[in-house]
Amino acid sequence: MLAVQQCYVIKEAPGKGLGMFATRDIRRGECILAESPLVYGTPDFIETQRAIDAMSPADKESYFALHNVHSDLPAAIGIMKTNGLPLGVDSVECAVYKHASRINHSCDPNVHHAWHSRPRKEYIHAIKDIAAGSEILTSYTVEFKVREERMTFLQQHFMFECQCRLCATPSPEYDETVRRIKIYSDRIPPCASLQPRRSIQYVRDILALLDTIGGNGKTRFYYDAYQICAMYGDYNFAQKWADLLLESYIMDEGLDGDEYDVTCDTEMTPARMNVPDVPHVKSFLRAIYRRQFNAQPSSIGCFIYSAIVSIKKSFALALGREGGGLRAP
Ligand SMILES: [Zn+2]
């Protein structure tokens, strides 16, 4: 055993080298890990090599113990390409971590990983309840790919054949659902400006389809619906979608990885929120959250949930509106 932390252990994962395992039951929404990088990487190999050379001996030991599938490259660069997690969704920069980089892949993951730029840490949150002893698994692929596409991607980039639940036993029904989600998803942007109602219907159809395959991946669709409603001035529905967006966002990424400056919350007055702008909604709710709960980040999923209910009530009061509840619009 290499490391023991609050709720996980890094140990041998049969057939996969090392992996991360839950040492106790973990609830959906809980923060499993918030970790600073061992080292950052960029597309510039020389710059990346320089950063690796400058690491402390202890960090170097952790770094060079990581898996490398790129034997054609210098080890330092191969490890970065194998283990680097991007600093945000579209970032070309990445970072390698002592523990987060040990999390193995599943096409049916139980955690979500996200980079938060203000604390400069990678956050790992449970997106499902995880039983003690289970492996903690994240997804290395892009969402909504069918089995064959996932297998090709994983083989090309990580050189392994996925044996997860979804890949081990092919499911034509699952692949068909994913295909339909992808089709509807592609139709939302062109439709949004001319046929907003139809776009919202696509979102609803996607949410229903997602429910049939585990319910993950809803956040971006709540955001699409929110944007469409806000764009057309339907602030009542925009607010309801924003509520769902916030709840889903917090479950996936937590409140502890705060990207917005809540210390400046005097600027987040309700007057500024006549147009429901998501960063402001989030910042305002977080500011209230921090005031009410004494500014301590929580890693307990159920506590976060009750906090959401509470901050939403405050939000509704601040705007002089009825509370929205957590139901779907
Ligand atoms: Zn798989």
Automatic annotation (TrEMBL):
InterPro entries xrefs: SET_dom, SET_dom_sf, SET_domain_protein
SET domain location: 5-141
Leader sequence segment: none
CDD domains: SET_SMYD (cd20071)
UniProt-recorded name of the protein: SET domain-containing protein
Organism: Entomortierella parvispora
